[in-house]
């Protein structure tokens, strides 16, 4: 299966499991916040969800795909531009998971896997937040891969943005 077909397959999975999230107006405002390089928070979260699915397929990992997709889409649901010169954003790397989890719990029904994914996604930076579930660990890896693509590789190569 070629990459375009895989992306389309994964996009359909994301739409199936997270149509409520993708259609949420608060989720959509993330299109206005920069995450890495020229990628918005929204684009980053979609790329991370697609990367999570790709990792599971590539390594034949059995997970709760619905929780995986939903947790991945909400892992950076902090709803502010962390690049703003606001003193409260200085420790963004250490604090945004708490804000994202609080916002996600306020706006969506989450299970324990999804909550753990959001809370622990900055491991190992937040060394005391060790992921409890395979889905959480996959998100940690997918988030770092996606951030790398969005920042470093995009300087040298064209990384396709993918929105749903």
Question: What is the topology?
Answer:
Elements: H1 3-22, H2 25-28, E1 34-36, E2 39-40, H3 41-58, H4 65-74, H5 92-107, H6 112-120, H7 134-156
Helix pairs in contact: 1-3, 1-4, 3-4, 3-7, 4-6, 4-7, 5-6, 6-7
- End-to-end Cα distance, whole Å, is 20 Å
Could you name the CATH class?
Answer: Mainly Alpha
Write the CATH architecture name.
Orthogonal Bundle
Query: What is the helix tally?
Result: 7
Helical proportion? Answer: 55-70%
Helix/strand-derived class? mainly alpha
Strand content: under 5%
How confident is the prediction overall: mean pLDDT?
87
How many runs of DSSP E, i.e. beta strands?
A: 2
- Main beta sheet: 2 strands, antiparallel
Q: What is the H/E string?
A: HHEEHHHHH
Instruction: Write down the CATH topology.
Output: Hypothetical protein af1432
What is the strand arrangement across the widest sheet? 1-2
Rg measurement, Å: 15 Å
* CATH fourth-tier homologous superfamily: Hypothetical protein af1432
Number of domains: 1
Please characterize this protein's 3D structure.
This protein is mainly alpha-helical and 164 residues long. The chain has one domain: Hypothetical protein af1432. 61% of the residues lie in helices and 3% in strands. It is built from seven helices and two strands. A two-stranded antiparallel sheet has the order 1-2. Strand 1 and strand 2 form a beta hairpin. Helix 1 (3-22) packs across helix 3 (41-58), helix 3 runs antiparallel to helix 4 (65-74) and helix 5 (92-107) packs antiparallel against helix 6. The radius of gyration is 15 Å and the shape is globular.
């Amino acid at each position: 299966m070629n990459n375009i077909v895989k992306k389309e397959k994964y996009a359909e999975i994301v739409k199936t499991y997270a149509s409520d999230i993708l259609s949420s107006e608060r989720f959509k405002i993330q299109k206005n916040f920069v995450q890495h390089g020229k990628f918005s928070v929204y684009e980053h979260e979609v790329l991370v969800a697609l990367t999570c699915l790709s990792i599971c397929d590539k390594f034949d990992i059995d997970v709760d795909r619905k929780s995986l997709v939903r947790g991945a889409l909400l892992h950076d649901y902090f709803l502010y531009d962390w690049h703003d010169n606001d003193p409260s954003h200085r420790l963004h790397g250490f604090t945004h998971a708490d804000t994202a989890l609080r916002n996600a719990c306020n706006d969506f029904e989450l299970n324990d896997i999804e909550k753990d994914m959001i809370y622990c996604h900055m491991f190992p930076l937040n060394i005391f937040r060790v992921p409890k579930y395979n889905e959480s660990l996959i998100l940690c890896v997918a988030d770092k891969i996606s951030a790398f693509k969005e920042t470093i590789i995009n300087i040298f190569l064209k990384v396709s943005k993918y929105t749903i």
